[in-house]
Specification:
single chain, alpha+beta, hpI Integrase, Chain A, three-stranded antiparallel sheet, 18 helices, about 50% helix, extended, disordered C terminus
Length: about 500
């Protein structure tokens, strides 16, 4: 059997082991069990001791080798377990005492470097951590030794940074980084830093989550129209792919033609383009390190992909004499030399594009390139798409992430659902009924026509009467959202029993 590796498993030696004859020599055997799965495998070692026909001295010598072999395995497992514990805690045991007397700023940088060394974070995450650490390092809190930081110190730091205009979300990330450092130190039971995390008792900056800024639904046709009239370019390809697949910008730039399967109608997301200061742009795994597939929209995206595939095929054929590599290895969103487009270029180009074309989002702000991902998700939900399927397409680990991010993204969706639900809720208990006058009746007719143009079904007999009541109520709750659709509804109406 194959030798079992122990780098990421909890293994133990079972029994004392034994020896057996193998090709005229004694072979030592030790059984190893995985404590998690219960799986058992055998580790073997050739002793080099010949199997003698007479006497037991050969077997006795082999048993001594077995004993040594068993001790080696146990020592190996013990070292592996210690290494796992150190990585799990985030710090090597022999160095933990070095942190206590360090200024907090130095301790953070040391901690970040160690996390990267132990492959606990990626280079991009390291850059994010460095940025978060700066808000501590540039403050007097960064000069305080690790073992002397108090909860009052942390609260005072938060107040100072807020007074300087640091965004609550940014400050919160710095707060979490400091809290993680102390959590790791305390996990190692280091008495020199005390027994309490100073960040635990402090008040973290309150972060008010903002709805994701997706492109307004009435502007989606405009975006499609503008991109359809554009000549083929790196930028055009990136925009169309993001809008019709919901891929992240790095995933769009990292897509190769071998990842596009026209027969199955699927795109496989394998890689992403990232950027760090000391490396520049490079190819890496996706955000969650998992492959995922995205169906190709047969109406909007498939013809476009076939069009640009033919363009790249023709270009490759014309450049074949130059030794150009196979098309399958080329990037879909590529530069003239065939290399991937950088995320910074796409972001800058889209910023200008968004400003030029007035691409306003649901937050009344111009959308960014990432807003195309939000637009895809918003349209999916608005047209009744399954949340679980959307989770898979977007690459979220948990469907709750998808729900939390996109459940309340577009005011128009609230209007649509409210108008669909309200008739069934009110039917059978209408209470006071409204008898609209001529002017009011005309206004209601206009409102209904507008709603129907937006795709709202107002067809059942009681819907019009219920709609009058609901419009008046809901318009007061959401005046901004409803103004564009419903207009100014006169309040003069006759209430009848």
């Amino acid at each position: 059997m194959q030798n079992e590796k122990c780098s990421n498993k909890t293994l133990r030696v079972c029994g004392n082991g034994g020896v057996r004859k193998n090709k005229g020599k004694w072979q030592a055997i030790v059984t190893v069990a995985d404590e998690v799965t219960g799986k058992k495998v055998q580790r073997t070692k050739n002793t080099g001791v010949p199997c003698l026909k007479q006497g037991t001295r050969g077997k006795a010598a082999a048993m001594r080798v077995l004993s040594e072999f068993r001790s080696e395995i146990e020592s190996e497992f013990a070292e592996a377990e210690e290494a796992r514990a150190a990585v799990g805690a985030g710090l090597p045991a022999e160095k933990r005492d070095d942190y206590a007397a360090l200024p907090l700023s130095e301790a953070l940088e040391k901690f970040i470097a160690f996390c990267l060394e132990m492959n606990r974070i990626t280079p991009t995450t390291r850059d994010d951590y460095h940025y978060s650490a700066l808000h501590i390092e540039r403050d007097e809190l960064g000069l305080v030794p690790v073992n002397e930081v108090t909860t009052d110190d942390v609260n005072a730091w938060s107040r100072r940074r807020i007074a300087l205009g640091t965004a609550p979300d940014t400050l919160n990330k710095s707060f979490k980084l400091g809290k993680r450092l102390y959590a790791v130190l305390l996990k190692r039971s280091n008495d020199t830093i005390g027994r309490r995390n100073p960040f635990d008792g402090a008040l973290a900056p309150r972060v008010i989550a903002r709805p994701r800024n997706a492109l307004r639904s009435d502007l989606v046709p405009k975006l499609n129209s503008v991109t359809s009239m554009m000549p083929d370019s790196t930028f055009r390809r990136a925009v169309v792919l993001a809008l019709h697949t919901g891929m992240r910008i790095g995933e769009v730039c990292g897509l190769r033609w071998c990842d596009v399967d026209f027969e199955s109608g699927l795109i496989t997301v394998r890689h992403s383009v990232a950027y760090v200061k000391d490396r520049g742009s490079f190819i890496k795994d996706t955000k969650n390190h998992d492959l995922r597939t995205i169906p190709i929209d047969p109406v909007g995206l498939l013809p476009f992909l076939k069009e640009i595939h033919e363009i790249d095929t023709r270009r490759l054929r014309e450049a074949s004499t130059l030794g150009t590599r196979d098309l399958a290895d080329r990037y879909v969103v590529s530069r003239p030399d065939g290399s991937f487009a950088t995320t910074s270029y796409i972001r800058r180009a889209f910023k200008t594009f968004s400003e030029t074309n007035g691409l306003m989002g649901t937050n009344d702000e111009l959308i960014t390139f990432h807003g195309l991902r939000h637009t895809f998700a918003t349209q999916w939900i608005r047209h009744g798409g399954d949340i679980k399927a959307l989770q898979s397409i977007l690459g979220h680990k948990d469907a709750m992430v998808t729900l939390n991010v996109y459940a309340d993204i577009e005011p128009m969706s609230k209007i649509q659902n409210m108008l669909r639900v309200s008739p069934s809720l009110w039917r059978g208990y209408l209470g006071l009924r409204v008898d609209p006058g001529p002017m009011f009746q005309q206004k209601i007719r206009e409102a209904i026509e507008t709603l129907e143009a937006f795709g709202y079904g107002i067809s059942e007999p009681d819907d019009r009467n219920v709609l009058i009541r609901d419009v008046q109520t809901i318009s007061r709750l959401y005046p901004t959202e409803y103004a564009a659709v419903l207009g100014a509804i006169p309040t003069e109406a006759t209430v009848v029993e």
